[in-house]
Every structure is written in C-alpha cells, then in structure tokens.
Design brief:
Shape: rod-shaped
Number of domains: 1
Distance between the termini: 107 Å
Length: 142
C-alpha cells in the first residue's frame, strides 16, 4: 500500500472557509469600532465646545449683548469653534458639521436670573445629533 502525505482539496477548501469567516468577523469588529470612535469624537467635540461657550457666557456681565433674551447663532466663520475638524478656528468661509447656538431666557427659573442653554448640532451620516448644556446667571445687582 502506498501512503501519500499532504492535504486533499476538500480539506484545503474547508480551512479556507473557516479562515474567511474569521477574517470577515474581524473586519466587522473593526468597522464597528471605527464607527463608535467617530461618534465618540463628535460627542466629545460637541461637549467641549458647548462647555467652553457656556463658561464664556456665564463670565459676561448680566447686561452683555450676548446675554439678551433670544436665540444667538453666530456665523460658522465667527463662532469660535472648529466646525470642520481641521484644527483651524474661524478661518474665512469655514463650514462643517458643527453648529453652535445659545438661547437666553430672562427671569427663568426665578426673577432676576437668566437661563442660558448652549446647543451644538452636528450632522451624522444618518441624522442630525445634538448636545445641550444649561446654566443659570443671577443678576448680582439685585
């Protein structure tokens, strides 16, 4: 009897099929991880910019123009944030997925206070996402 060493074509095909399934699973994990990291980056950017703007607004005087009642929406190239994630802030003609606005409400929640809500909205491939931070400013002269 004659004995041959090696693998049959069926064994090689089964091994390739198992290997392919493993590679596809690793690819799916990598894709999901990349998507999750992108979402986390956008949320972190939005939280950072909103927090920065809210801190700046709260430091202003009670009667400052940026704290008048209503919605304030600066132009993208004058809002003080990096709208397009390129490392530059307020370059001429800047556009991008981030948009920052704030709403000031007088005498809320109590008289002689202002509610300041900062909103950051960004475009996601599927829909717009947003983050809001709220703080209160009291009139120190009352």
């Amino acid at each position: 009897m004659h004995s041959e060493k090696g693998f049959t074509i069926i064994e090689v095909m089964i091994a390739l099929a198992i290997f392919s399934i493993g590679i596809m699973a690793a690819w799916a994990l990598q894709t999901g991880s990349t998507r999750g990291n992108t979402k986390a980056r956008h949320l972190t950017s939005a939280a950072t910019w909103a927090s920065d703007r809210l801190e700046r607004l709260i430091q202003l005087s009670y009667t400052h123009a940026d704290l008048t009642a209503g919605v304030h929406a600066p132009a993208l190239d004058a809002d003080g944030i990096d709208n397009n994630h390129n490392g530059l802030i307020d370059e001429p003609g800047e556009s991008g997925p981030l948009q920052l606005t704030w709403r000031v409400t007088d005498d809320s929640p109590i008289v002689r206070t202002k509610t300041v809500r900062v909103d950051v909205v960004w475009r996601d491939p599927l829909r717009d996402k947003s983050l809001s931070l709220v703080s209160y400013k009291a009139n120190p002269e009352s």
